């Protein structure tokens, strides 16, 4: 075994107080992955866009597996342009994004643009088996869409659990008419995420193994903006592990105001987010501006998987260093039973970063956390996030669906989640939107396609979600935002009284938590023909089947013209599989086989 002493370059001003000491490295000549470290854009204010809008903005994303150590522990990471999180994409409302994706990751992949409506471009929504075939390895594919909305978004792979392996990035759309534009000086992004030291393919194989009785895999770290501080106690002998990663640090100047865009890119966990001594004024939730009221100023924000908030921080405190806190809410998780994958993880649930006032020097913060007063595993109180402009929900429901969240074991004793007792199985090489375009009727699809359709132009779709399970599920709707007209305890229709519906000024967002034994009623307009996923965003639950497909206005959609490169991708994907000699050896490919197996069982 060979040890080297490494000194860490590029240390920020603040981290000088940390002793940067020796780190262990074992050189592993058999591993051919390149080891990279890149400075993240996340700690700088968003660069100003120079071109006037509407503009066409071009991006190139290369998907590639590299060795990175976000929390000090080195592992293969499914990176974008060698980075984790992937590079920033930003534009103005009205711009066109042309994003060329070159897949050199060895796996198939797709990119979903989380929260982007994809009006008239359903085939660029990036969901394998629903809106496109996966992009095979060594193939490039260009996403090309107009962005007619604004807000804080992210992008991520939608292929198996690839995003949990690192394939995520930030997408910001600026609003020329932002009512809060003059209320802050700089614009920062913060991501919070759980992080796993094992690649997800073996974790998924275990999670979906017959007779498995545990819960979702336990993460190893909590990251702030892609940076974590792992104590290395769980690192196997010989693995590179640096227990002195500098803390994620955001610099502010006293007297200025800062917008922070907070994004939870986790696979699993709910965080609370706070910055000591600094109340946060919420101004945006998932692409909708929030009303300027005193209730919008909060101290602690619960943020579930895939949710986003923008807040304004007033740097009006004494010049000092203060803790930024991202804490995993333990009580949102099931008990840590010893049959759960990675149950003995040495994770620190309370990740911290530093808000550094210019001139504060480098001493460690002594600030204390705000008391946590928000009800557990619920969304931020609705009074804090009312839409800036009152936006009544439509009152005439044209299509009414009830989705029961169900759990059952199949004939192989594999635990599966489902919508109305049906566990979704993607068919990667025959995506639903292509089938609709070939005039197939969704009512003829296999039951495990979980296809729910409606055909009334601009009708109002209502979905009642009933969660009679001891688990919390953050549900995300593609292609839309929705009005939350009701939510609360009780998982039966009898628990819901229509007289309590708020149609006047309900919260609008695209990702909602459905806590255990609870319900929610959402409405949205059928204004976007296409195939839209509606699913729990806990990645482990996605692979267990907690996914529905909403077939929106198939009559109209089937008459649209599919871009030739989208169709060609399916031919490339089929030939990739025919020629792929390692089909049975790559863990992620064995996952594909396993998913096909489910299809036979149910
Ligand atoms: Cu879930």
TrEMBL record:
Segments forming domain Plastocyanin-like: 66-177, 186-360, 441-555
Gene3D superfamilies on file: Cupredoxins - blue copper proteins (2.60.40.420)
UniProt GO molecular function: copper ion binding; oxidoreductase activity
Signal sequence interval, chain numbering: 1-22
Top-level taxon in the UniProt lineage: Eukaryota
Cited PROSITE patterns: MULTICOPPER_OXIDASE1, MULTICOPPER_OXIDASE2
Pfam families named among the record's database cross-references: Cu-oxidase, Cu-oxidase_2, Cu-oxidase_3
Alphabetical keyword list: Copper, Metal-binding, Oxidoreductase, Signal
Entry similarity comment: Belongs to the multicopper oxidase family.
UniProt name for this protein: Laccase
Biological source species: Diversispora epigaea
Classification of source organism: Eukaryota, Fungi, Fungi incertae sedis, Mucoromycota, Glomeromycotina
């Amino acid at each position: 075994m060979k040890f080297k002493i490494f000194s860490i370059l590029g240390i920020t001003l603040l981290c000088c107080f940390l002793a940067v000491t020796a780190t262990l490295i074992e050189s592993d000549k058999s591993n051919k992955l390149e080891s990279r470290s890149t400075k993240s854009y996340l700690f700088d204010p968003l660069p100003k866009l120079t071109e006037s809008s509407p503009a066409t903005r071009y991006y190139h994303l290369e998907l590639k597996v590299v060795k990175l150590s976000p929390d000090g522990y080195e592992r293969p990471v499914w990176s974008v342009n060698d980075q984790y999180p992937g590079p920033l994409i930003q534009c103005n409302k009205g711009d066109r994004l042309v994003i060329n994706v070159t897949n050199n990751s060895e796996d198939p992949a797709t990119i979903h643009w989380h929260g982007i409506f994809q009006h008239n471009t359903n085939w660029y929504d990036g969901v394998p088996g629903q809106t496109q075939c996966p992009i095979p390895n060594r193939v490039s594919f260009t996403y090309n869409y107009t962005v007619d909305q604004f807000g804080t978004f992210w992008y991520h792979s939608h292929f198996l659990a690839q995003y949990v392996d690192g394939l995520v990035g930030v997408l910001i759309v600026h609003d020329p008419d932002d009512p809060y534009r003059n209320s802050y000086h700089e614009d920062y992004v913060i991501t919070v995420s759980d992080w796993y030291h094992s690649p997800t393919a073996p974790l998924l194989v275990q999670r979906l193994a017959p007779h498995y009785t545990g819960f979702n895999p336990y993460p190893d770290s909590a990251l702030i903006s892609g940076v974590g501080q792992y104590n290395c106690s769980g690192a196997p002998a010989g693995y590179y592990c640096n227990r002195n990663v500098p803390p994620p640090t955001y610099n502010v100047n006293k007297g200025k105001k800062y917008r922070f865009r907070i994004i939870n890119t986790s696979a699993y966990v709910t965080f609370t987010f706070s910055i000591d001594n600094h109340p946060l004024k919420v101004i945006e939730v998932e692409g909708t501006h929030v009303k300027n009221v005193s209730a919008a100023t909060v101290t602690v924000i619960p943020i579930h998987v895939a949710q986003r908030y923008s807040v304004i921080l007033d740097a009006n405190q004494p010049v000092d260093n203060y803790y930024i806190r991202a804490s995993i809410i333990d009580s949102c998780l099931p008990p840590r039973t010893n049959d759960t994958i990675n149950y003995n993880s040495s994770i620190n649930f309370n990740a911290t970063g530093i808000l550094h006032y210019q001139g504060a020097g480098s001493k460690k913060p002594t600030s204390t956390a705000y008391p946590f007063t928000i009800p557990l595993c619920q969304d931020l109180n609705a009074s804090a996030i009312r839409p800036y402009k009152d936006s009544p929900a439509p009152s005439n429901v044209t299509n009414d669906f009830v989705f029961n969240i169900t759990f059952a074991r199949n004939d192989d004793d594999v635990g599966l989640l489902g919508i109305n007792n049906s566990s979704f199985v993607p068919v990667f090489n025959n995506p639903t939107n292509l089938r609709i375009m070939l005039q197939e009727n969704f009512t003829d699809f296999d039951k495990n396609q979980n296809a729910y359709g409606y055909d009334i132009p601009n009708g109002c779709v209502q979905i009642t979600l009933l969660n009679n399970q001891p688990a919390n599920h953050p549900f995300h709707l593609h292609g839309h935002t929705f009005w939350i007209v009701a939510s609360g305890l009780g998982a039966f229709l009898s628990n819901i009284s229509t007289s309590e519906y708020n149609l006047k000024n309900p919260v609008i967002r695209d990702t909602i938590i459905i806590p255990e034994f609870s319900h929610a009623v959402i409405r949205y307009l059928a204004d976007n023909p296409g195939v839209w996923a509606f699913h729990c965003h806990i990645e482990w639950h996605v692979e267990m089947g907690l996914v529905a497909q909403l077939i929106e206005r198939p009559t109209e959609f089937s008459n649209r013209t599919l871009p030739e490169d989208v169709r060609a991708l399916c031919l490339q994907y089929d030939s990739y599989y025919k020629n792929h000699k390692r089909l049975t050896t790559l863990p992620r490919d064995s996952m594909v086989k396993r998913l096909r197996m489910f299809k036979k069982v149910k």
